[in-house]
Amino acid sequence: MIYTQLQLFFIFLINGLLIGLLFDFFRILRKAIKTADFITYIEDALFWILTGFIILYSIFTYNNGEIRLFMFLAIILGILIYLAFISKMILSISIGIINVIKKILGTIFNIIKIPFHFLMKLIKKLFLNPISFIIINIRNYFTKYLKNFSNVLKKVKISNKFVKNTKN
Fold first, then answer.
1. Could you count the other beta carbons within 10 Å of the beta carbon of residue 61?
2. Element (H, E) at 82
3. Which listed site, 9, 72, 78, 85, has its alpha carbon 20 to 30 Å from 103?
4. pTM above 0.70?
5. How confident is the model over 49-96, as pLDDT tens digits?
6. Angle, vertex CA 64, rays to CA 62 and CA 65, nearest 5
């Protein structure tokens, strides 16, 4: 009987360690990826749902659904042990790995970006620059044409006024 309860105590102590690890997983996720508040709320709800599932699964699997106070004390002790002795190490290693992965992915992205950058320069040089050259020249031509036309209209108005004045 005592052996079984001691065994249950260690099972729920391990559950506490797992819950602490799950907690750190979400902390690492938040540090690695900046998320909106809404996503953080979803992550928190997911954490509590998973925690409840772990605890209920263990209670029904290992103790036939019977709830004992020592099980919750073991879970709390497991979480405290995890946070006091293991959490800092897991966080630093995980964040270090994530930073290395970010650097590697950034380097790969920069390498992949080079041909696309070259291609965009080529497209700009071959297609966009001539098109913009044509558009600028058409605009300049019409600007000159409209300016000349406006000058002609002014002369016509002046001559019309002159003609009207001479008739009177």
1. 10
2. none
3. 85
4. no
5. 999 999 999 999 999 999 999 999 999 999 999 999 999 999 999 989
6. 105
